[in-house]
C-alpha cells in the first residue's frame, strides 16, 4: 500500500505541473463600430498551430498550451490585434475596420453595384447608422446637412407636412424639383395628397418608409450616375435599399425610444396693456381732434381684466414614442428580414397628432445555385390629425395660426361657464372692442376673427393613408457572369381625407356659394393612386485577360400610374352632433360632389456599360430611351445618353514615391436627363370644360393642344476628383457641376383668335409650350477625416461637406413667370428666386412717414391720408402749395441682386468614441440668401389687431430714427412689398447632439441579449442666425404648388420647427 502511494506522488506532480502550464480561455469578438459579433475570426497562439475560429455570434473557446503569452486575432476587413494573455480567462475583443482592405460597395440601379474606387460618377451614400440615429418623420429628412449639394426643407413644424428635397438647386421653373426616389429598384410615385381645405400638400409620402428598415441611401447627382433613369432624373435620384436577411444565427432586434417636442421659437406679441396703448395711438394719430378712444381692459365686462396670450393657447409641448421590432435569419437556401413598428407623435400645436403602424417582409429564396427569387413588401397605415394651414387660398382667416397671431389680447378664451367666448355670429367675441371691427380690414368676415382654440378643438382636418409598397423578382444565371432578372413592383396608396367645420363656431361653412364661415361643413375625399412597374434586364460581367473588366446591363421597363378620386361635401349642418354628409343632415342646396381620374404611362429601353482597365482607367456609358403619354405624338420619345471617364492616377508608377497620397482618382462626366413633372397627364391635349352661353350651360375648350410638346432637358457636366491621403486618415471628394436646362415647360396664353380665355385670374393655362432656359452651376466638397485614434480605444472622426451654387434664367421668350406674390417672378437674366422690390429708404425723422426709392432713384414718401398705392416726391409741393400724389407702379420695384435660395450650405459632423461610449455633434449651416419676412410685415399692421413687440420701437416724435413709421389706424402702406422686410437667411444650426453607450457584453448577456445600446439625444438644439423670424428654414411657401420654386424663401405665418428630446435603447437577442 505504501509503495502504491509513493508511486502516485510523482504522477500527481506531473498532472499538477501540466495544469499549471495549460488552461482554457473564452470570449467574444465584436465589430467595434456596431457591437455585433463577427463570425469566422481567426484566433491563434503565435508560434504554434493552436487556434480556433469564432462562431456565428462571434464567441470562441480555446485551450492554451503551456507558455502561451499572447493571442493574435485577425479577420478579413478588420485590423489584426495581439493581446497579452496574462491571467485572464474571459476576453471581450473589439476589432476596428481596416479601411485599406475594405472597399465600399454602392448600389447604382437595375441590379448594378460598384466598388467606390471604380465609380466615375458623382454620388453620396448614407448608411443605416446615420439613418437610425435621428428621430425624423421620414427618411429623406435624415439627409439634411449630411450630403453635399442636397437641401432638405420642412414646410413647417406641423406633423406630417410635406418635405422638399432638392439636389444641386432648383432645376425647373414650374416643374417639381423633387428627385426620383427608387426603393429596392422600383420607382416610387410622386403622389402627395392635395388637401382641398388647405390647398396644399399635408402629408409626406416618404414618411411611409420606416428608417429602421433602410440599409442605405445613395444619392445619384450627375448624368453618368442618374442617366440610367433618363427622363425622370433631372433632379437627381435617391436609391433606397432596405435590409435583407443574412446567413447565420437568427437575430431579434428591439428599438424603443420616446421623448418630447417643443417649438424652437414662438412669436413675441403685445400683451393687453401694450395692445391698448398701441391701438389708442393708432386711433389718436388718425383722429387728432377726437377724444382718446380707450380700449377696455375688461373687454367682456365680467369684472376681470383679461390678458390672453393666444400663441400660448394654441401651442404646447408634444411627445413622441416609437417601437420597432425586427427579426432576421438565413442560410444557404434563403433568408428573410421582417419588421413591425408603431409610432405616436403628439404635435406642438393643439390637436395635431400623427400615428403610424408599419410592417415589412423581405424574403429571398435560392432553390438552385443558378436561380433566386424574392419579395420585398411593406405596408404602412397612418392617421394624421392635421391642422388648417396658414396659406388657405379661399379663406385663410380660418387658420388657427392666423387667428392666434391677430387676436386681441384683452379678450378672454372662455366665458364664465367654460364655453368659448364668441359673438352672436359665432366668431371670436369682441365685447367692448366691438367698435374696432371697422378697423379690421377682413371684408370676408365683416372685421371679425375666428376663435383660434375653438377652431383647433372642434374642427377636424384628418387624413388616413394606407400604402402598399413592394416588388417581387426572379433572377436566373444561365451562364457564368450572365444574370437575367424580371421584376414587378407596385406602389399603391389609398387616401381618405375628412374635414369637418363645426356649425357652433364660425369656420369654413358656405353661404350659397360665398364663403362667410357659417353653417358648418363636412367634406370627404377618397383617392386611390396605383403605380405599377415591370422591369426586365440582363447583366453580364466578365474579366478578359488580367486587366480588362466589363459590366453591362440592358433592359426594358414600363410604368403605369392611375389616379382616381371622388369627393362629397355638405354645408349648413342641421346640428353639431351630425358629423357626416348623409342626405338630410345638411342644406341640399349646399352640397357638392365630384370625381376625377388621371392616367400616365411610360415605356423605356435602357443600357449601361462599365469598363475598367488595369484598375487604373475607367469608363461608363449609359443610355435610356423613354416614352411618356404626357407629351404630343410627335415628341413622345426622348433619348437620354450619358458618359463618364476616370483615371486612378495614384496607381501610376510615377506616383509611387508620393507616400502622402494613398489614392487619387480624376473623373469627368456629361449627359442628358429629362423632366416632365411640371405638367399634367393631359398637358399636350385639347381639354374641354364647363362653359356658358348667356343663361344656358354647355361646354367649351379651355386649353389648346400642343402635339410638339416635349421633355424638359438637362445637360449635366461634372468634373472632379476623389482622394485619400495621410494613410487614409483624410478622404476628399470634390466636384464642379453644371446643369443647363432647356425646353422649360411653361403655360402661355393662347392667341385671342382661338377664343380661349386668357384672363390672368383664371386657374387654367391656355397652352403648354417649351419656352425657356436656365442653368445651375456650382462646386461641392466633402472631407472625411480620422482626427485622432489612440491605442486605448479613443477615436475622433469628422465629416464636413460644403456646396456653392449659382442659378440664372437665361431665356424666357414668352415673358416673365409670375408667382402668387407680385414681388417674386422668374425673369430672363436673373436667378429664379431673386427679389424684385421697392427699395426702402426708411422713416422720415421729421414726420414719421415711410419712404422708398422710385425707379429713377428719387426718394418718395407716403403721407397718411393719400390714396393707397400713391406717394409724393420727398418735400415736394405743387398746385397751390398742396402735394400732388403720383401712383407707384410695379416698374418702381427693382431687382435687388438678393435671392431666396441659399448660395452655400453644408454640414459638419463630429463623432467621439471611447470603448462603448459615443458622442455625436452634428452642425448644419446655410447662407448667402435672403428671406422675405411676410409674417413680420403682417404683424406690423396698423389695423386694430395684435402686433409683434417690434412695433413698440415706432416713430413717436420728430427726430426719432426707426424703421417703423408713425402709427395711423388702417394706413398700411408701410407694409408694401419692399426691402424693409428682406432679411439675411444665414444660419448655423446644432442639428443633433447624441450620446450613446454600448453595454459590455458580460452585462448584456445578463439580460439575455447579445448587444444593448442606450442613447439620449436632442435635435434642433440651437440655431444661430440674425433672421428675426421663427426659423430661417421654416415655411418656404410650400403651398405655392407649381410656383414653389419661384416663391422659395417667403416666410408666411408658418408653424415653427420643433426641438426634440429623445431617449431610448436598442437590444439584439
From TrEMBL:
Topology in the lipid bilayer: Multi-pass membrane protein
Keywords, in A-Z order: Cell outer membrane, Membrane, Receptor, Signal, Transmembrane, Transmembrane beta strand, Transport
Organism placement in taxonomy: Bacteria, Pseudomonadati, Bacteroidota, Cytophagia, Cytophagales
Domain of life: Bacteria
UniProt keyword annotation of Lipoprotein present: no
Similarity comment text for this entry: Belongs to the TonB-dependent receptor family.
Cellular component terms (Gene Ontology): cell outer membrane
Main location: membrane
Gene3D superfamilies linked to this entry: Carboxypeptidase-like, regulatory domain (2.60.40.1120), TonB-dependent receptor, beta-barrel domain (2.40.170.20), TonB-dependent receptor, plug domain (2.170.130.10)
Domain TonB-dependent receptor plug residue range list: 116-237
Name by which UniProt lists this protein: TonB-dependent receptor
Species name: Hymenobacter gummosus
Protein's UniProt keywords contain Transcription: no
Cellular compartment(s): Cell outer membrane
Amino acid at each position: 500500500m505504501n509503495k502504491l502511494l509513493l508511486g502516485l506522488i510523482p504522477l500527481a506532480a506531473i498532472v499538477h505541473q501540466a495544469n499549471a502550464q495549460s488552461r482554457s480561455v473564452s470570449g467574444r469578438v465584436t465589430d467595434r463600430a456596431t457591437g455585433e459579433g463577427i463570425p469566422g475570426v481567426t484566433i491563434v497562439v503565435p508560434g504554434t498551430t493552436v487556434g480556433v475560429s469564432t462562431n456565428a455570434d462571434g464567441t470562441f473557446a480555446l485551450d492554451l498550451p503551456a507558455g502561451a503569452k499572447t493571442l493574435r486575432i485577425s479577420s478579413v476587413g478588420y485590423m489584426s490585434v495581439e493581446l497579452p494573455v496574462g491571467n485572464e480567462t474571459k476576453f471581450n475583443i473589439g476589432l476596428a475596420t481596416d479601411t485599406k482592405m475594405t472597399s465600399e460597395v454602392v448600389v447604382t440601379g437595375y441590379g448594378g453595384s460598384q466598388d467606390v474606387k471604380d465609380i466615375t460618377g458623382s454620388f453620396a451614400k448614407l448608411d443605416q447608422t446615420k439613418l437610425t440615429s435621428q428621430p425624423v418623420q421620414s427618411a429623406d429628412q435624415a439627409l439634411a446637412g449630411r450630403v453635399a449639394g442636397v437641401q432638405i426643407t420642412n414646410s413647417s413644424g406641423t406633423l406630417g407636412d410635406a418635405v422638399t428635397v432638392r439636389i444641386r438647386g432648383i432645376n425647373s421653373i414650374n416643374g417639381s424639383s423633387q428627385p426620383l426616389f427608387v426603393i429596392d429598384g422600383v420607382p416610387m410615385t410622386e403622389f402627395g395628397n392635395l388637401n382641398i381645405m388647405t390647398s396644399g400638400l399635408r402629408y409626406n409620402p416618404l414618411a411611409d418608409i420606416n428608417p429602421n428598415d433602410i440599409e442605405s441611401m445613395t444619392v445619384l447627382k450627375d448624368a453618368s450616375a442618374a442617366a440610367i433613369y433618363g427622363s425622370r432624373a433631372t433632379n437627381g435620384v435617391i436609391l433606397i435599399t432596405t435590409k435583407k436577411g443574412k446567413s447565420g444565427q437568427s437575430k431579434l432586434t428591439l428599438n424603443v425610444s420616446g421623448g418630447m417636442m417643443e417649438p424652437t421659437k414662438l412669436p413675441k406679441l403685445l400683451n393687453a396693456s401694450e395692445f391698448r396703448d398701441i391701438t389708442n395711438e393708432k386711433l389718436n394719430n388718425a383722429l387728432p381732434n377726437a377724444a382718446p378712444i380707450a380700449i377696455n381692459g375688461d373687454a367682456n365686462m365680467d369684472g376681470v381684466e383679461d390678458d390672453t396670450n393666444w400663441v400660448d393657447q394654441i401651442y404646447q409641448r408634444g411627445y413622441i414614442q416609437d417601437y420597432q421590432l425586427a427579426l432576421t435569419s438565413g442560410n444557404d437556401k434563403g433568408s428573410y428580414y421582417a419588421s413591425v413598428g408603431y409610432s405616436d407623435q403628439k404635435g406642438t400645436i393643439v390637436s395635431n397628432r400623427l400615428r403610424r403602424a408599419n410592417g415589412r417582409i423581405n424574403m429571398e429564396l435560392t432553390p438552385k445555385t443558378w436561380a433566386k427569387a424574392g419579395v420585398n413588401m411593406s405596408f404602412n397605415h397612418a392617421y394624421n390629425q392635421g391642422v388648417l394651414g396658414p396659406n388657405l387660398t379661399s379663406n385663410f382667416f380660418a387658420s388657427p395660426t392666423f387667428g392666434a397671431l391677430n387676436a386681441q389680447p384683452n379678450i378672454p378664451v372662455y366665458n364664465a361657464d367654460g364655453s368659448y367666448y364668441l359673438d352672436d355670429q359665432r366668431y371670436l367675441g369682441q365685447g367692448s372692442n366691438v367698435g374696432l371691427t371697422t378697423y379690421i380690414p377682413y371684408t370676408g368676415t365683416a372685421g371679425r376673427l375666428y376663435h383660434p382654440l375653438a377652431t383647433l378643438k372642434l374642427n377636424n382636418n384628418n387624413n388616413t393613408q394606407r400604402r402598399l409598397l413592394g416588388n417581387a423578382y426572379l433572377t436566373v444565371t444561365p451562364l457564368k457572369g450572365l444574370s437575367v432578372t424580371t421584376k414587378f413592383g407596385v406602389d399603391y396608396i389609398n387616401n381618405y381625407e375628412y374635414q369637418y367645420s363645426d356649425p357652433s363656431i364660425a369656420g369654413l361653412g358656405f353661404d350659397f356659394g360665398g364663403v362667410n364661415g357659417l353653417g358648418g361643413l363636412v367634406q370627404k375625399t377618397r383617392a386611390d393612386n396605383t403605380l405599377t412597374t415591370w422591369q426586365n434586364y440582363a447583366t453580364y460581367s466578365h474579366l478578359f485577360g488580367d486587366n480588362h473588366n466589363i459590366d453591362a446591363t440592358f433592359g426594358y421597363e414600363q410604368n403605369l400610374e392611375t389616379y382616381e378620386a371622388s369627393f362629397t361635401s355638405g354645408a349648413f349642418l342641421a346640428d353639431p352632433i351630425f358629423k357626416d354628409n348623409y342626405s338630410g343632415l345638411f342644406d341640399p342646396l349646399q352640397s357638392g360632389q365630384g370625381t376625377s381620374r388621371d392616367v400616365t404611362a411610360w415605356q423605356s429601353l435602357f443600357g449601361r456599360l462599365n469598363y475598367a482597365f488595369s484598375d487604373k482607367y475607367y469608363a461608363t456609358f449609359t443610355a435610356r430611351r423613354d416614352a411618356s403619354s404626357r407629351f404630343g405624338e410627335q415628341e413622345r420619345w426622348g433619348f437620354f445618353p450619358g458618359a463618364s471617364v476616370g483615371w486612378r492616377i495614384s496607381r501610376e508608377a510615377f506616383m509611387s514615391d508620393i507616400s502622402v497620397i494613398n489614392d487619387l482618382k480624376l473623373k469627368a462626366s456629361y449627359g442628358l436627363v429629362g423632366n416632365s413633372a411640371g405638367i399634367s397627364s393631359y398637358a399636350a391635349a385639347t381639354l374641354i370644360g364647363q362653359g356658358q352661353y348667356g343663361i344656358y350651360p354647355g361646354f367649351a375648350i379651355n386649353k389648346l393642344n400642343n402635339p410638339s410638346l416635349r421633355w424638359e432637358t438637362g445637360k449635366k457636366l461634372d468634373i472632379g476628383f476623389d482622394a485619400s491621403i495621410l494613410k487614409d486618415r483624410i478622404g476628399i471628394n470634390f466636384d464642379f457641376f453644371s446643369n443647363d436646362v432647356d425646353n422649360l415647360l411653361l403655360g402661355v396664353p393662347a392667341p385671342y383668335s382661338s377664343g380661349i380665355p386668357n384672363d390672368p385670374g383664371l386657374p387654367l393655362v391656355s397652352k403648354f409650350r417649351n419656352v425657356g432656359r436656365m442653368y445651375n452651376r456650382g462646386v461641392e466638397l466633402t472631407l472625411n477625416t480620422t482626427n485622432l485614434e489612440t491605442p486605448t480605444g479613443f477615436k475622433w472622426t469628422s465629416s464636413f461637406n460644403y456646396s456653392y451654387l449659382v442659378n440664372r434664367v437665361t431665356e424666357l421668350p414668352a415673358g416673365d413667370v409670375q408667382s402668387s406674390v407680385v414681388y417674386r417672378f422668374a425673369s430672363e437674366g436673373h436667378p429664379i428666386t431673386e427679389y424684385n422690390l421697392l427699395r426702402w429708404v426708411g422713416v422720415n425723422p421729421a414726420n414719421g412717414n415711410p419712404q422708398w426709392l422710385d425707379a429713377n432713384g428719387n426718394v418718395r414718401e407716403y403721407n397718411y391720408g393719400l390714396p393707397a398705392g400713391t406717394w409724393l416726391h420727398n418735400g415736394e409741393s405743387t398746385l397751390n402749395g398742396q402735394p400732388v400724389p403720383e401712383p407707384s407702379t410695379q416698374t418702381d420695384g427693382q431687382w435687388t441682386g438678393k435671392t431666396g435660395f441659399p448660395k452655400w450650405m453644408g454640414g459638419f459632423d463630429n463623432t467621439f468614441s471611447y470603448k462603448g461610449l459615443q458622442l455625436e455633434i452634428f452642425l448644419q449651416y446655410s447662407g448667402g440668401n435672403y428671406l422675405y419676412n411676410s409674417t413680420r410685415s403682417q404683424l406690423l399692421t396698423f389695423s386694430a389687431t395684435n402686433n409683434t413687440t417690434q412695433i413698440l420701437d415706432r416713430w413717436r416724435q420728430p427726430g426719432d430714427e426707426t424703421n417703423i413709421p408713425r402709427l395711423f389706424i388702417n394706413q398700411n402702406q408701410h407694409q408694401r412689398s419692399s426691402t424693409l422686410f428682406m432679411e439675411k437667411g444665414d444660419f448655423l444650426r446644432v442639428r443633433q447632439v447624441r450620446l450613446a453607450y454600448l453595454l459590455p457584453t458580460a452585462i448584456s448577456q445578463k439580460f439575455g441579449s447579445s448587444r444593448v445600446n442606450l442613447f439620449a439625444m436632442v435635435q434642433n438644439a440651437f440655431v444661430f442666425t440674425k433672421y428675426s423670424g421663427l426659423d430661417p428654414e421654416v415655411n418656404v411657401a410650400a403651398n405655392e404648388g407649381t410656383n414653389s420654386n419661384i416663391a422659395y424663401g417667403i416666410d408666411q405665418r408658418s408653424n415653427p420647427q420643433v426641438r426634440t428630446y429623445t431617449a431610448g435603447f436598442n437590444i439584439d437577442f
